[in-house]
Design brief:
Radius of gyration: 22 Å
Low-confidence stretches: 404-411
Largest sheet: 7 strands, mixed
Strand content: 5-15%
Strand order of the largest sheet: 1-7-6-5-4-2-3
Structural class: alpha/beta
Number of strands: 13
Shape: globular
Mean pLDDT: 95
Bound molecules: pyridoxal-5'-phosphate
């Protein structure tokens, strides 16, 4: 059925009814069926976020000169993340998400290199194979070249291989904290040494781990360094709408200094309305996302984030114990809450299809073959159901040796 532009408006009651109907077959994240897309802690946080979002839904984050409230909240949010990650006062910006933050950092690296390395015509980025595709998208948009280098046997970036791939055109090294697929943090310290040696920009994609990772460390887990305390780190992207548990449309990009941040900006005045300066890719941006991030972060405070960190690390512990019981193994040594698991004797990709047929939206990992799991507090009561479905899926596939010869291909 084609739908045209409605001639007459309809009541909210009827729209709501239709929308409820439309989402009846959606992923049931409220029952923990997801392993990506949704970061949800509890209904209380949702209410705070919703109220704050609604209060500023109509205001425009672009107009910080006139919306003093949003300017203040934006400054507070950025400052909170800078404090968390050891950055200098004021050297950061909110953006619409991880991809935009990565874009802004990479644009800064490219423009920095235009000044510092004027001989470079096609600037190159060197990233581990495990990096999120957002960096390829960015390189594509910015006319940069990207080389993906195989990870080491621990599935982390291999700093020696990356250093060996550096050419006179290289401007940027890229690390993840953690990488999405297996949840491992790259050896940022060693990469920082290489970046300094070759005079390169080092970006740390902490889109997943940037907000909650420091709290996991405070709980006593050995989280490797990935913030500005590591020499050589030039910029960090840290998403609020992921492990900051704020509504979508909210990330941060931080720089080692305000001078480095300046390279991310855009400044133009050859049009009728005068000077247009911007530190983001988007123009108009949602006041609601800024306000909700501010409210959620202040609502939770350190205590709230520590509680969430404890919950997700407990889920992971429980999850891993169940994996051992089923003779499945976790790939690598994940540093935070996200894990991926596989098997030498079970065809894990077919198990993933069986899980999906049972209503679990598991995310597959291709290399090495596995299933990814990103715990959030909403998963806690459903781990038992997850493992019942997993056992049934394994039974359906069978434990044979047909998968035993499956080679792990790191490249
Ligand atoms: C490690 C990592 N970086 C970047 C991104 C991109 O973030 P966004 O989808 O918010 O643009 C993601 C998304 O999952 C991610 O996991």
């Amino acid at each position: 059925m084609t739908v045209g532009f409605p001639v007459r408006g309809r009541s909210w009651r009827s729209l709501r009814k239709q929308m409820k109907h439309m989402c009846k077959d959606d992923l049931n994240w409220r029952r923990g069926r997801h392993s990506a897309y949704v970061w949800y802690a509890n209904d209380e946080i949702k209410r705070v976020a919703q109220n704050a979002y609604n209060m500023f839904m109509t205001e425009n984050g672009l107009g910080k000169r006139v919306f003093h409230s949003l300017r203040q909240m934006h400054a507070d949010v950025v400052q909170m993340v800078l404090v968390l990650l050891g950055g200098p006062d004021g050297a950061g910006q909110m953006s619409s998400g991880g991809t935009e933050s990565i874009f802004l950092a990479t644009k800064a690296a490219r423009d920095w290199a235009r000044q510092r390395k004027p001989h470079v015509k096609t600037p190159e980025i060197i990233a581990p194979h495990s990096a999120h595709p957002a960096i390829n998208k960015t390189a594509h948009y910015l006319g940069m070249k990207i080389k993906r280098v195989p990870v080491g046997s621990d599935f982390r970036a291999d700093p020696h291989a990356m250093a060996a791939a550096v050419t006179s055109n290289t401007v940027m090294l890229y690390a993840s904290a953690p990488a999405f697929s297996l949840g491992v943090i790259d050896p940022v310290e060693q990469m920082g040494v290489a970046a300094q040696k070759h005079n390169l920009w080092l970006h740390v994609d902490a889109c997943v781990g940037g907000i909650l990772g420091p709290f996991v460390r405070r709980l006593g887990h050995p989280v490797p360094g990935f913030d500005f305390s590591v020499p050589g780190v030039s910029s960090i992207s840290a998403d609020l709408h992921k492990s900051g548990y704020t509504p979508k449309g909210a990330s941060t990009v931080l720089f080692r200094s305000p001078e480095l941040q300046e390279y991310s900006g855009f400044d133009f005045d050859d049009w009728p309305s005068g000077r247009y300066q911007s530190l983001t890719f988007t123009g108009t941006n949602p006041g609601g996302a800024i306000a909700a991030a501010w409210a959620v972060m202040n609502y939770l405070g350190e205590e709230g984030y520590l509680r969430i960190a404890e919950t997700v690390m407990n889920i992971r512990r429980h999850f891993e114990a169940n994996l051992r019981r089923l003779k499945l193994h976790v790939w690598g040594k994940p540093d935070l809450w996200a894990v991926a698991y596989g098997s030498d004797i079970i065809d894990i990709m077919t198990v993933a299809s069986e899980m999906r047929a049972r209503g679990w939206a598991v995310a597959p990992v291709r290399r090495p073959p596995g299933i990814h799991f990103m715990p959030t507090p909403v998963h806690e009561p459903y781990i038992k159901e997850y493992f019942s479905a997993l056992e049934a899926s394994i039974d359906a596939v069978g434990r044979t040796s047909s998968a035993a010869g499956m080679q792990v291909d790191y490249a």
